[in-house]
Design brief:
alpha+beta, Beta-Lactamase, Heat Shock Protein 90, 22% strand, 12 strands
């Protein structure tokens, strides 16, 4: 390969170096930012200490290598080496950390979704097989109990499928700015009224009307998910309240508070991960799919807002949504 003009390598968005005589003869700005400006003129074995990278660079043939941890722990890089005129080596380093992370997250999501669906399905099939036994079918009490379990597990599968479809729809439009004018005060009162048969959820506001630019259906889903979560985990005698406050900075703060057991601090950063549960047994018993807070986070981010959860064991939990108000 003909030796490239260093000025051309400076325009390349990825790290590029020319190695000649075992030393770094040239490094573009991206390579200097990655490895340090001092690498120019240094022995390549000092500039890059990764064994896989050095093996690819010092080989007599063109090739590639996957290198980890060049910038920060866990980062991943594709290293490509080509031979130039005179025997020099052109080394290109492309950061593929995000790509690898997305691929890993996708694989984990598919595995988790499959597991979550397989568990109730196995229970349904097991009880159906038992009911097919003529002796089991003759026992009315046993039959009724097994049918109740089948119905419960089928409802659990239905809820999970609905949440998976909802998450898919949200991700499909995540780059489209919603444009409906939505009064969040009226919507909050409506969503709180929908659960009146289970609990009284007072709505405390400092403004009679709070208009945001949003997707009406998605914003209602946020409030319903947060209220439902608070009722599930707030305890049998727990109090749930909803507050709406318009700030002087032109933003709307929505809080859903419960007086339940609270959440240990080590769980808080991961609560919006898909299928993550602070208490898996309690969540499944309460009918949770493990996707509700992930759905909330995606919707809030689509609305250019912020979602946060604050909690202390024994002091309840507050889920907060911050949205920009629509200026008149």
């Amino acid at each position: 390969m003909t030796s490239p003009d260093p000025r051309l390598l400076e325009t390349v968005p990825i790290a590029a170096m020319v190695i000649a005589g075992g030393q770094v003869a040239f490094a573009n700005a991206a390579a200097c930012e990655l490895l340090g400006a001092h690498i120019v003129g240094e022995d390549v074995r000092i500039a890059i200490r990764d064994p896989k990278a050095l093996a690819a660079i010092t080989a007599q043939t063109d090739g590639t290598a996957r290198v980890e941890g060049l910038s920060v722990q866990g980062s991943r890089w594709n290293l490509t080496c080509s031979t130039l005129e005179g025997g020099a080596r052109l080394v290109m380093l492309e950061d593929v950390s995000v790509r690898a992370s997305v691929a890993r997250a996708h694989a984990d999501f598919v595995a988790n979704a499959s597991h979550e669906l397989r568990t109730p399905l196995a229970a349904i099939l097991g009880y159906v097989e038992t009911l097919e036994d003529p002796k089991a079918g003759e026992d009315a009490g046993l039959r009724a109990r097994f049918l109740g379990i089948i119905r419960h597990e089928a409802a659990r599968m239905q809820a999970l499928v609905e949440d998976l479809m909802s998450l898919s729809r949200i991700e499909a439009v995540k780059h489209d700015a919603p444009g409906d004018a939505v009064d969040m005060v009226a919507m909050a009162r409506q969503c709180a009224g929908e659960v009146r048969d289970r609990a009284e959820v007072p709505v405390v506001v400092n403004v009679e009307e709070a208009i945001v630019a949003g997707d009406r259906g998605q914003l209602a889903q946020v409030l319903r998910n947060l209220i439902d979560n608070a009722l599930k985990y707030g305890g049998p005698d727990g109090q749930v309240s909803l507050t709406i406050e318009a700030t002087e900075s032109g933003r709307l703060a929505i809080g859903v508070h419960d007086s339940g057991d609270g959440i240990a601090p080590e769980h808080l950063p991961r609560l919006t991960e898909r299928f993550y549960r602070a208490d898996a047994g309690r969540s499944r018993a309460a009918g949770g799919t493990g996707l509700g807070l992930s759905i909330v986070k995606h919707i809030v981010e689509r609305h250019r807002g912020r979602f946060d959860i604050a909690s202390r064991p024994g002091e309840g939990t507050t889920a907060s949504v911050i949205l920009p108000l629509l200026r008149g």
